[in-house]
Amino acid sequence: MNIEAFLNAPLHIQVHALAALGALGLGVVQLSAPKGTIPHRALGYVWVCLMLLVAGTAYFIRGASGHFSLLHLLIPVTVIGVVWLSVLARRGNVRRHRFAALVLMVSALGIPGAATLIPGRLMHAVIFGG
Predict the structure, then answer these.
(1) pTM (two decimals)
(2) Per 3-state DSSP, what percentage of the chain is helix, strand, and coil (rounded to 5)?
(3) For residues 30 and 69, which has the higher predicted lDDT (pLDDT)?
């Protein structure tokens, strides 16, 4: 593990990574904990804020050429997804809310998270060294 690589990364990348890890961990808790409770609702608001922070900071992360990558297409997907997820929860549509949460976890956290483990990327260096 190479934590120094993470500490030497720009601040917006550090915030992005920590928010994403927080959202991933909290998302797992939310999906496995009892639903419809006050803690579920309160933690849901925290999760939404973390996801919006992930999307917002992702805008400032560019490739070596300074351009956006295909992963940046997930920024509007994330923003629209958390808004839609919130609307479904407010309407009491539990089944669609649960499905939207699962889709968002995979599309906005799982896929980009897996992409960060590709050799040459920061999280690959942090986890596997180099």
Answers:
(1) 0.92
(2) 75, 0, 25
(3) 30
